[in-house]
Amino acid sequence: xxxxxxxxxxxxxxxxxxxxxxxxxxxxxxxxxxxxxxxxxxxxxxxxxxxxxxxxxxxxxxxxxxxxxxxxxxxxxxxxxxxxxxxxxxxxxxxxxxxxxxxxxxxxxxxxxxxxxxxxxxxxxxxxxxxxxxxxxxxxxxxxxxxxxxxxxxxxxxxxxxxxxxxxxxxxxxxxxxxxxxxxxxxxxxxxxxxxxxxxxxxxxxxxxxxxxxxxxxxxxxxxxxxxxxxxxxxxxxxxxxxxxxxxxxxxxxxxxxxxxxxxxxxxxxxxxxxxxxxxxxxxxxxxxxxxxxxxxxxxxxxxxxxxxxxxxxxxxxxxxxxxxxxxxxxxxxxxxxxxxxxxxxxxxxxxxxxxxxxxxxxxxxxxxxxxxxxxxxxxxxxxxxxxxxxxxxxxxxxxxxxxxxxxxxxxxxxxxxxxxxxxxxxxxxx
Length: 431
Description:
It is a single chain. By secondary structure, the protein is of the alpha/beta class. Helix content is 35%, strand content 22%. The chain has 2 domains: 5-216 and 332-422, Zn peptidases (Aminopeptidase); 218-329, Alpha-Beta Plaits (2-Layer Sandwich), CATH 3.30.70.360. The protein contains 13 helices and 14 strands. An 8-stranded mixed beta sheet has the order 1-2-4-3-5-14-6-13, sandwiched between helices. Strands 9-11-7-12 form a 4-stranded antiparallel beta sheet. The model has no long low-confidence stretch (mean pLDDT 97).
C-alpha cells in the first residue's frame, strides 16, 4: 500500500533524528532493512552483498567505525545487519520484480554530515522534537528525505501497473564521494537499463521539478603530508627544514594554478594542521584539499597540477611531500530521452507548478559512477531534482525540507518508473 504524505513525513523525521556519517550508517541501514522487509520486496542485498568492497573510498579509521557501530547497537540496530555491515560496509539494495519489462534503477543516498544542528523554536526539527540525537552530526542535505522517497517509491510502484524490475540503491557515503563507485561496480547496477537519481532542494522551490541535471563537476578529495626537519627555533633555526613554510608556499601556489580554457576548474585547500610549539621548527604538516573540473579530464589536469605544486613547494624548503586521492567522482550528464519522460510526467502532476527541462548542477555527485555504468551498458540515466523550500542552505545548521515535496517526489519517480515499463525510451528518441 502506497504511503500517505503523513507517513512519508514520519519516516523522514525518524531518519532525521538518528543521522550517521559516511560509512557509519549502521543504524540507518538496520532501519532501512526493517522498512524494506515490511514492504516485502523480492530481494534484499545488505551491506557487503550490496557493494564492491574494493571500490569503496574514504572509509574512516577503525576507531571511528567501532564507535558508530557501538552507538548503533545501543540504539537498537539488528545484530544480523551489524554483522552484514561490519567494518563500514553499509547500505542496501532492494529489488522489486514486477514482470518481464526493463530494469529501472533508483539511487538515493543515506549518509549525514558533521554539522551541529540548530536548536531553537524557529528550527522545525528542534521545535517538533526530531532534531538530531547525535550531537555534531546532522542530515543537512536532505538524505533523510531521500530515504523516505526511496521507500515511498517502492510502495507506490507495488501499487502500480509497472512491468519490469525496480532496483533501488540506498547508497552510503555520498558526502565523501566514497560509496557511488562501490555500488556502481556490482551486478545490480550492471543490470540496470534506466537509472534515476534524485535530490531534493538545491535551491529549487517546492512545486518545481528539474527533469535532468547536466554539468556536475568531476571532483577529487586529496590528502597530503609534508615532511621536514625539526630544530630549535632560537638556537639553531638553520638546521631545520620548515614544513610550515612549505605549507604556506603550497597554499599560495595552489590558488595560483591557472584556470583552464576548456571549462570551469576549482581548487581549494580546506584543512591544514602543522607544528607543535612556537619555539620548534615544524617537521610535519598535513592538509586536505579538493580539485574539481567541468569534465573528468579537467579535474585530472587540476589534480596533476596540484600534485606538482605540492612537490615543488616542499622541495623549495628542503622538505618532501606526498599527496593521495581519498575519493573522486567523474562527470556524467543526464540523457535527453529519459529527461523527456521525466519532464512529461512532471507536467501532468497537479502539485508540480513549474518544470525545468535542464539545469546545471555546479557541484559534484558520486551518483555519476552509477550513471556512467548504466551508459556503458547502453542504458539511459537522469539526475532529477525535486524542489523543496529549505530555510537554511544545504550543509548548514538550519537546513530543513518542506515535507510536501516528499509526496511530489514519490509521485514523479513512481510515475516515471511505470511509464518506462509501458514504453521504454530509446537512446535515439528525441530528447
